[in-house]
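Narrative of accomplishments. A recurring question from our advisory board has been how the design workflow behaves on a single, concrete structure rather than in aggregate. To address it, we present the structure tokens for one chain from the evaluation set, followed by the sequence designed for it. No filtering or post-editing was applied between the two.
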């Protein structure tokens, strides 16, 4: 998957961070699709592959689009405006997570 590089960066940041100081403690389910919208991979924000049965929020995005966000070529806001991201679940939790992407953009 093209966005594996971005996922590895997130994994490393999570490993380096102090769990007691994390401001986002919710569970998120990411669903990555191809350009035709077919599911490629699902993973929880803790970045272990698979589906999170008790996710606070679900984010569905094309692999290519997540790569563009991760490499700062696009923002999540731009993806939302273009309706390239589907968000489901706890809006407050999702906004906290998106704030982390905004800080790193």
């Amino acid at each position: 998957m093209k966005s594996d590089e971005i996922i590895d960066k997130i994994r490393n940041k999570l490993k380096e961070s102090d769990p007691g100081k994390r401001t986002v403690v919710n569970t998120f389910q990411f669903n990555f699709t191809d350009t035709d919208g077919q599911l490629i991979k699902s993973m929880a924000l803790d970045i272990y592959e698979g589906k999170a049965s008790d996710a606070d929020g679900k984010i569905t995005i094309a692999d290519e689009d997540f790569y563009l966000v991760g490499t700062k070529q696009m923002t999540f806001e731009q993806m939302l405006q273009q309706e390239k991201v589907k968000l489901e679940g706890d809006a407050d939790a999702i906004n906290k997570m998106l704030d982390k992407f905004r800080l790193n953009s």
